[in-house]
Amino acid sequence: MRTSSVPAVLLAFAALAASAPPAAGERLIASLSTHRVMVTSSFTGEELVLFGGIEQDAASRPRRSGYDIVVTVTGPRQNTVTFRKSRVLGIWVNADSRVFENAPAYLAVLSNRPLDMVTNAEVLRRLQLGLDNIPLPQRASINIADAASDDPFRVAFIKIKTDNGLYREVPNGVTFLTPQLYRASIPLPAEVPVGTYEVDVRLFADGAQIARAPSPFEVYKSGFEQIVTSAARDHGFLYGLITALLAVITGWFASVVFRRD
Amino acid sequence: MQIYLPIAGLSVNVFVLLAIGLAVGFISGMFGIGGGFLMTPLLIFLGIPPAVAVASVTGHIAASSMSGAISYWRRNTIDLALAFMLLAGGFIGTASGVWLFTTLRAIGQLDITIGVLYVLLLGIVGGLMVAESVRAIARVRQGKPVELRRPGSHTWIHGLPFKLRFKRSRIYVSAIPVWGIGFFIGLIGAVMGIGGGFLLVPMLIYLLRVPTATVIGTSMVLTLVTMASATVMHAATNHLVDALLALILMVGGVSGAQFGARAGQKMGGERLRLLLGLLVLAVGIRFAWDLVVPPDNLYSIRLQDAEP
Lengths: 261, 308
Prior knowledge:
The structure holds two protein chains of two kinds.
Chain A: H1 2-19, H2 21-24, E1 26-32, E2 36-39, E3 46-56, E4 67-74, E5 77-88, E6 91-104, E7 107-111, H3 115-118, H4 121-127, E8 137-140, E9 143-146, H5 152-163, E10 167-170, E11 174-178, E12 181-188, E13 195-205, E14 208-214, E15 217-221, H6 223-234, H7 236-257
Chain B: E1 2-5, E2 10-13, H1 14-31, H2 36-46, H3 50-74, H4 80-106, H5 110-141, E3 163-166, E4 171-174, H6 175-192, H7 197-206, H8 212-237, H9 243-265, H10 269-292, E5 299-303
Antiparallel strand pairs in B: 1-2, 3-4
Helix pairs in contact in B: 1-2, 1-9, 2-3, 3-8, 3-9, 4-6, 4-8, 5-10, 6-8, 7-8
């Protein structure tokens, strides 16, 4: 039930954005270098390239401060537990925990200049833009609530995700090639989980959002990796038997190859 | 060359993994142990999630025990009857261990349990081994005769009922401590990702008075079966066994073990025990350090399991 509210909010914004263009007159175009990222045995991460342009028409007014682009890439959602250690009887143990429900596994916010220069804090909060403003509802026992942006668990969660390269805010991640042509690269580290990733491109001018373009892509495991993963998940017992058999054969093989007596 | 481990969900250098396999295999061949107590911490240090490391290392230990057991089998130094009796307890121990592992993981206390168990077991066993071998070396230096096994010396263990005769080991002992030892090794093996050879061998020698001739071969049969079944059980319940990781470790491990065995034969028994004791103690101290020293980051994150 909780998950449905997020898409609902997004839909509402999409409707808002869709109704905006007549006044604005700009059309935002976004295109990804690929919509399918394959995880193979030699996968060490990948960099997707996002290309796009801003089309003006007769209704477009000249913009005083030019255009700004903010790209938000959101990975598949996962329930993630954050533990906090404290000292018990002289040793450090996980004493307290929060569950972040449906937190994005991957989150990148790329823009052509710092977000606070693109627009004001109020708009950023309303549009849930940037690592400080993404909703991260957390559950402690039975209560679910979105904590303040300085909540220690939330700060720690975002810091760990950032250290792992899974969350990032890059204020110079979008480059304008010409005033109407932009380019952004989306770095995906080797640890990215498989699933659907939403790329949400927003066009700002004079501090207001004037257009929006979505462009999803998918990360999936290639043949062998997929077979191993699904075998481990769906046929655990058989998979375990095969692994154990593999161990026995390897051990036997070694004793034959290296036989000295 | 980087290789993507499908279950661990990250990519590591395949040569680093092979090197770890070789090094641990060398040590395990030298001392006649599985080497899990070194392998699991090394993998965790590499960044592999502890739960995946524990589950996958079981496969590696099964492989190295298999190759060890075969060579002892050829030399006819395995007490199969004793191994089967140990296994009766070992199976139940392994199943309980996998269950305990799953439960501890669910409540977020798995890492700390693994840590505390490592400190306690490695600290005690390592300390005892060092003390015992230093005494033995000192005795040899002073020219006193090496203390021999006293077949007549009985402890309370020999007073227990359900006595069985194990012909090959030439011991007559109650089934209860045999099952108990098997259960204990199976339990901690499944929770800690170790074969338990370094615990099992002294237990068999000191508690059951199994002669040194049959102790290592018999211990390897037990480790082989408990670790192979732990692999199956971990795969069936927690879905955390990374077959690719296990395979790379196995290949490195069984090769390293061959060279280790040759190196071990050139060294005296006491010196070998002292070295192993120091190694065990060092790993234990390393874990104690992590538990006591304030961590850099008080927070850690983990995915919540899809199914409860």
